[in-house]
Amino acid sequence: MGWIDIIVFVAFVASVIGLGMWKSRGEETHGDDGAADYFLAGRGLTWWLIGFSLIAANISAEQFVGMSGSAADYLGLAIASYEWMAAITLVVVAFIFLPYFLKAGIFTIPQFLEVRYNHWARLIMTIFMMIILIGVSLSGVIYAGAVTMTDLFNQNGFGVNLTTSCWILGLFAAGYVAVGGLKAAVWADLIQGGALIIGGALIAWFAFHQLGLTDASSLVDGSGAAASIPEGAGVLEKFQALNADKMHMVLPKTDLNIPWTALIVGLWIPNFYYWGLNQYITQRILGSASLREGQKGLVFAAALKLIVPFIIVVPGIIAFNLYSNEMAETAASDPAIKMANEEVLSRYEAVKSDPASMDVFVFDNGWLKTNPEKAAELSGYNAAVAARADEAGVTVAENKLVGYKYDSALGLLIGNLIPKGKGVLGFIIAALLGAIVSSLAAVLNASSTIFTMDIYSSYINKKATQFQLVTIGRICVGVFVAIGCVVSPLLADPRFGGIFKYIQEFQGYVSPGILAVFVFGLINRRAKGIAGVVGLLANPVLYYIIHRVFPGVAFLDRMAYCFFSVLIIMTIIGLFAKHDQPVEFEHNTNMDLTSSKGAKFWGIGVVVATLILYWIFR
To answer: Helix 162-213 to helix 466-487 angle, to the nearest 10 degrees?
Structure first.
């Protein structure tokens, strides 16, 4: 980094912290609204703050590293379904979920379960969300951010290891969210949300520029094979020739990540859970100044989601075209990848003589190039297993050997393409850091809010003052970030399947059940609280059983099976355990709950635009 890059980087960080602290100055922690001021920004957020904050809290290293890495792998543009389907989801949340939440005047999503079911349902959801927020979301975002920041630090002469990067990021985020709460976070997000979109667009531009300059002999197609490009092809024609197989949204139903069946049901479940029921996202809309502001903010965020794949997914695809050799070298020197590959090969040696085995052993082109003889042996074995599986009508268990480190895609693009000494590198690194810190701040604020309001205030100290609630919230931020920084380096193990998949798959233990309980609770107002309790507890059991008994079922399809199973279970319970009268959701706020006609118009436009994109890239 040149001195101009360093100045830009420092100025960016200082402006983010300064704006957040300045806007949260004078925050009242002792008065009647102290908790609302700290945890929900005084319920005064406007639509443009909400929109940028939602994007900044969502788009982090999980997306920049995980989605670009998944795009570099075989998934390609198909991974963009998480973004484009989110656009439709946000519109639905704005007009179906949000009015109920704001009318109830709740601080946390688990509170709504107590309104509809009972305090046991609230407690169970609280425990589930604490586990997911700290063990999955927080640790996942810290790890993904630390991977990128470690690479960038080392490329620029700063010897920083993964664990140190985890602590730097964690403590940075914890610092300003502990002091300023949600208000500090959303104002910081205003800068960081805009910067990450600009930074992503710059990376995409440099990636396309380099693709146009690079000779075809130095490029590979989406599978890692030598490129076949028409002579004199322009950059877009070159991109299409290299990645025609990756520019589709629909994958076979046998795919274990995003089969086309998941687009019908499975992928909607994590989307509706994440955008409508996940505290670290919904906390922004719970702080809306009015229903109109919340709806406009959600639709604004939905529109921004449509451009995200073009600045994150597409550059990841190009990274593989340009730097597949570097990805292979990184994988070959990665101890965790080596260990995981050795375990897969040990598994092969253990089952290859077992005629009842349904294990297959797949590998990418990077592993094939360095192990051609073993690959041929595995291919013959896989064919025999597939024949047995077809005859028996069962699915196979897939074990993967990795020859590329796909999650290095973003770091390779930045390290090789971004000019140094002109301020651009400093801005992009600052934007990435800001994106990471925004998501960390959101998770920390959400988890501290849930613990304070749903556990401490409800069970430990029911007479807590506003000052005590805010103090506990700040203590929680420190404790939770320490846990996340300890756990996050463990996610380097490739057996997790990449950080993006890790976060999505493990949320399946709770998200289908929580969504089913909410949907059922809004539709069926007469079923007693026991239905919600059983529904929440049944989901992780069902998800685990399906995972163990049917390992060939994609995790998104697993979510769909669990969602509908929980709904059936709750419906049966509701037939026998029901109230005499439907549960009424009390009006518990002075907020203006008038719906926004303008937001509805633009929301319909976002839905139509999303469907057009799916048709174009079908």
So the answer is: 70
pLDDT value of position 217: 84
pLDDT at residue 26 in the model = 57
pLDDT (tens digit per residue) in 297-346: 999 999 999 998 999 999 999 999 999 988 988 888 888 788 889 999 99
Tell me whether residue 342 is exposed, middle or buried, using C-beta atoms within 10 angstroms of its C-beta: 0 to 12, 13 to 18, 19 or more: exposed
Q: Which of 165, 12, 115 is nearest to 484 (CA)?
A: 165
Give the span between the Cα atoms of 423 and 92, in whole angstroms: 41
The whole-number pLDDT of residue 31 equals 47
- Is-contact 198 431, C-beta < 8 A? yes
Task: State phi, psi for 361 to the nearest 5 degrees.
Answer: -125, 105
Calpha distance 369→366 (Å, rounded): 5
pLDDT at 573: 96
Q: Residue 145: what pLDDT?
A: 77
Q: Which residues of the chain have pLDDT under 70?
A: 24-34, 61-62, 155-158, 176, 180, 492-504
Question: Which residue is it, tokens 């896989």?
Answer: 382
What's this model's pTM, rounded to 2 decimal places? Answer: 0.83
d(CA 610, CA 618): 12
Confidence at residue 30, expressed as pLDDT on a 0 to 100 scale: 47
Q: How far is CA 93 from CA 21, 271, 411, in A?
A: 30, 10, 34
Q: Would you kindly state where each structural domain of the chain is located, as residue ranges?
A: 3-18+42-329+408-500+604-616, 335-404
| In contact, 61 and 290? CB cutoff 8 Å | no
Query: May I ask the CATH class of domain 3-18+42-329+408-500+604-616?
Result: mainly alpha
Helix, strand, coil percentages, rounded to 5, for the chain: 75, 5, 20
Full 3-state SS string of 407-450: HHHHHHHHHHHCCCCCCHHHHHHHHHHHHHHHHHHHHHHHHHHH
Q: Is the dihedral of CA 309, 507, 187, 199 positive or negative?
A: negative
Residue 263 CA to residue 554 CA, distance in Å, equals 12
CA distance 82 to 63: 10
User: Residues 109, 515: contact at Cβ < 8 Å?
Assistant: no
Report the C-alpha gap between 439 and 437 in whole angstroms. Answer: 5
Separation of alpha carbons 436 and 139, rounded Å: 12
* C-alpha–C-alpha distance, residues 359 and 539, integer Å: 27
Q: Which of 347, 319, 46 is nearest to 187 (CA)?
A: 46
> If you search the block for the tokens 């890239």, which residue do you land on?
617
Please say whether the beta carbons of 183 and 24 come within 8 A. yes
